[in-house]
Each structure stands twice: as structure tokens, then as C-alpha cells.
Design a protein that fits this description.
This protein is mostly helical. It has one domain (2-53). Helices cover 85% and strands 0% of the residues. It has helices spanning 2-17, 19-22, 28-53. The longest helix is centred in the last third of the chain and has 26 residues, at 28-53. It is elongated.
């Protein structure tokens, strides 16, 4: 079970880096992963902006 979770995490990271592949909606899963990638990037950018304004 742990291996499955690790594989899923690696897949998610890979999809984040390979946006052209993540943009192809092969399944609902890919759509969810792409959404999470966008949210993560948005949160990271917002945090950096807040730190910069300080």
C-alpha cells in the first residue's frame, strides 16, 4: 500500500512538471491532479508575494 502511495506522489509530481501531458484529459484523475498542481502553484506564488511585501 505504501508503494502505491509513493507511486501516486511521483506521478503527481511528474504531471506537474509535464503540463502538456497533464493538459490532456485522459481521465478524471488527470483533471484532479492538474487542479491540485494549479492550486499548489497559486499558493506558493501567493506566499512568495506576501513575503516579498514584508
Amino acid at each position: 500500500m505504501k508503494n502505491v502511495l509513493v507511486d501516486f506522489f511521483v506521478l503527481e509530481k511528474w504531471l506537474c512538471f509535464r503540463r502538456e501531458i497533464a493538459n490532456v484529459d485522459l481521465s478524471i484523475l488527470s483533471t484532479k491532479l492538474r487542479h491540485r498542481c494549479k492550486m499548489r502553484t497559486y499558493v506558493r506564488t501567493t506566499v512568495l508575494e506576501v513575503l516579498r511585501t514584508w
